[in-house]
Amino acid sequence: xxxxxxxxxxxxxxxxxxxxxxxxxxxxxxxxxxxxxxxxxxxxxxxxxxxxxxxxxxxxxxxxxxxxxxxxxxxxxxxxxxxxxxxxxxxxxxxxxxxxxxxxxxxxxxxxxxxxxxxxxxxxxxxxxxxxxxxxxxxxxxxxxxxxxxxxxxxxxxxxxxxxxxxxxxxxxxxxxxxxxxxxxxxxxxxxxxxxxxxxxxxxxxxxxxxxxxxxxxxxxxxxxxxxxxxxxxxxxxxxxxxxxxxxxxxxxxxxxxxxxxxxxxxxxxxxxxxxxxxxxxxxxxxxxxxxxxxxxxxxxxxxxxxxxxxxxxxxxxxxxxxxxxxxxxxxxxxxxxxxxxxxxxxxxxxxxxxxxxxxxxxxxxxxxxxxxxxxxxxxxxxxxxxxxxxxxxx
Amino acid sequence: xxxxxxxxxxxxxxxxxxxxxxxxxxxxxxxxxxxxxxxxxxxxxxxxxxxxxxxxxxxxxxxxxxxxxxxxxxxxxxxxxxxxxxxxxxxxxxxxxxxxxxxxxxxxxxxxxxxxxxxxxxxxxxxxxxxxxxxxxxxxxxxxxxxxxxxxxxxxxxxxxxxxxxxxxxxxxxxxxxxxxxxxxxxxxxxxxxxxxxxxxxxxxxxxxxxxxxxxxxxxxxxxxxxxxxxxxxxxxxxxxxxxxxxxxxxxxxxxxxxxxxxxxxxxxxxxxxxxxxxxxxxxxxxxxxxxxxxxxxxxxxxxxxxxxxxxxxxxxxxxxxxxxxxxxxxxxxxxxxxxxxxxxxxxxxxxxxxxxxxxxxxxxxxxxxxxxxxxxxxxxxxxxxxxxxxxxxx
Lengths: 395, 395
Hints:
Oligomer: homodimer
Strand order of the largest sheet of chain A: 2-8-7-6-5-3-4
Order of helices and strands of chain A: HEHHEHEHEEHEEEEEHHHEEHEEEH
Number of domains of chain A: 2
CATH class of the largest domain in chain A: Alpha Beta
CATH topology of the largest domain in chain A: Aspartate Aminotransferase, domain 2
Low-confidence stretches of chain A: none
CATH superfamily of the largest domain in chain A: Type I PLP-dependent aspartate aminotransferase-like (Major domain)
């Protein structure tokens, strides 16, 4: 028995455990301090009422022989795929229903999609990067190269025509930087991928935070994307589904490599290794796309957007450079006073009792930067923003 | 970009589509005939009332800020893992809570576990076999060898000490044959796996159908199994969760290969490529293990067991050899009159208007055999059993 030796090459998951350790130590030493966490990437607003109603109604259906549902359709129920199809149509993107696959999360889908690709491919990811893109490819032994993102490009690197890559990751609006590509910039990535014959894996998990009309919600708003891109989207951030689990992945019929349709390969992968999202969850997801569901989930997004604006305003007042905060629940700030990511973490914890995430944890280009998130309560976010501003002023 | 060329080696999914085609053609030619389907492997009884109540209560929780749940714990909620732990304790199996992983299905888990193993391993599967064991390994390019099951061994092959294997699949009670291993027989497999240093993947999806006290519900009832086995179990058949999706996978701490803990490798795989089963589903699953849930789900199992007994009785009267039907919802019968699997399919469809599954669809050793399932309604199962008996008598 030979194990997959690539697991030995995985870096430890130290970022959040190290944060936890430092916060615990500080709390133990200062039990009287009220700590505010702006490090979390998880939503806090409850599921919208129409979503809860859909869950309860579907649960009732499952309890009656006449309306009970067993194994669902391979790619998800039509009622949900049609809702997703209509959502894309609103953005001018026309999808065949068989291009839409319902899953249980963008993390699952974007990890599992790698089953379709040989391990002998070069993977291009941005730096800083959502760690799962790196870890899932490290597990398979693929070569990983980085597109350095910097303050100079607003943490939105453009393709380097001298670099060869086979699999390209783009997350826009980005986790962790909050930066969002314009249509022109995405078009440059699509053209680059098509020129190389690469596959572009587009993570649209944060699309619902977009307000700028020039920032596409979907890679398929860009010409040529159907020949190179796969898109992952989720209701986790759109509708607070981090604990309810539902995603949709778009694999265009036009996307072929090595003589095979990636759509048909993904269908075969999913029918062989997956059995679909729960019926009740698919009903809940469909409720998100109804007028009532749309209105209710927009309120939660607006709540987080207001938090992001509060943090951004404090940084504006403090004269600190940042990106994100607009089109995104994440604010990516430069550490003041030339501090390293972890030194600023310690200062902020000690002086402001605010917890964020050191940018260095997301890649070498993240050193000297710091991530704050807008998923907390409005009251605590306001308090944290005030303390943040004061702490920076006192440095 | 190189695709995973192994996908080209996958056999088509022809079995159920061919059945569908033949049934559709017959129905079109004979619209007046009432066809009874005993080919399905999906449950039909609704979710038990305590399960539905748990779903609704958890849905309410998700709608309130105070009780909302976002991302869950990596391996599943403690309330469910503790219920699974207590369930195993009832069988005399002591598990550490961290040996228990909650998932969304035994099919997902038994497919995804292969991420932990090198592609250069030899896989031993029984023939006939649940097709996913073969397809998931074909996708990864592993060498597959077969342990032939025959009428002579009651479709329960024992290990051949001259055969080398690295990954071994055992499903007991078996899909498709319904045959279930005794403790002594499973002990022979565990000893064989330990001698080879192989990993034994044990599929316990049908354990709830076991009535025979000598048939283990878990591979961990067998001494030495914690050093070689991983067990997959699901609520799909136990509690009608085929459309609700919840599984539990046991990876013992004692199971190490190549210097690594497979438990820690699986934890890393799941935290990187999965985000857990929905909170509401985990609450529903926990309700299955309460006294009320246990009683209600037992009633559904008893209902299917009674169906299996009706079919078995008809075959006894017809003088046809079969296995399963006891300890299992599946009946695996020898085709009467020396007919091939597909010829008997056609005869049964034409003369009895009953649909089953040709054994040849599950492997070469399935030729001349036929699978019937107990998941239909009691009334239709009785009618089908009567027609089956008459058809065999008239051959």
